[in-house]
Amino acid sequence: MYVPKVNESFLNQLESMGFPLAQSTRALHYSGNNSIEDAVNWIIDHENDPDIDQMPLVSTDIDISIDSTEQFSLTEEMKRKAQELRDQARKKNEEEKRFEREREKKRISYGKELMEAKRVLEENERKRYLALKQSEKEEEKRAKEKIKWKLEQDKLERRGKVQMPLKSPAKQSVVQQKQISHDPIMSVSKVELMSECLRSLKRNHMDNEAKVRRAFQTLLTYVGNVARDPNQEKFRKIRMSNPKFQERIGGMKEGVEFLELCGFERREEFLYLDSEKVNMALLNSAGSLLKSAITNPFFGVFTRPKEEI
């Protein structure tokens, strides 16, 4: 028994169309080996045959005219061809497996990239959420500090009306008590005078809000520098002829008066604050008033009626 010889061109075409070798060989053999169309029609008509996927075999007794030498050559040729077909099938199978492995690797790699992108997205979302919560906490803290500061200002003004000291001696530090000892009665009325001085400055220059704000900020810088480092003489000495001083403060008598209320004295062309006359409590009160004047848009706009004590 041997595999019948069929048209190689037709066989290759059928295989390229996707038909298995056994089906293609069987279809060409039984359809007369005439054309591709006949072979395809035969496969369609016999697709349910139980032996459709088996290689057809024919008996050597069919062609008795072939001598033994020709039969041997034909058998060897068939074996060689069959081996080639097996090799082709094995190679095709290996190619398909390699392609499948590559596709699986790509699928796994894509899955990992997708998981990593999802993780990064979730991490960024978590960071944004934490940043938002932190921002909300800081905003709430600033609001509380602002309310606390406002209450302190109201308390300061109420004490000013009744001539009360800013703090009880028991709550003041040793340094503050030593500084206040130079001015035993740091009358809160002086704080009220400073407040009225700032209100007057704003009312008298309401037509130039930017200039008023710049004056308040400059005064806060002078007062803050002395409060932070009272031993530095350069902070306690202001040249009134200085162009920047003239531009920001000099043209406003209320600004000079405010500095004088803080302890500065006129000495020729300077405003000078002696180190032994530095009153930290007074400077702190002045700083609080200036911050209120800068941040409160209604500061000095309305004139408050005098209260009876």
Automatic annotation (TrEMBL):
Basic and acidic residues: compositionally biased ranges: 76-103
Stretches for region Disordered: 75-103
Signal peptide: none
PROSITE patterns according to UniProt: UBA
Domain UBA, first and last residues per copy: 5-46
Pfam family, one: PUB
SMART domains documented for this protein: PUG (SM00580), UBA (SM00165)
Protein's UniProt name: UBA domain-containing protein
Organism from which the protein derives: Cannabis sativa (Hemp)
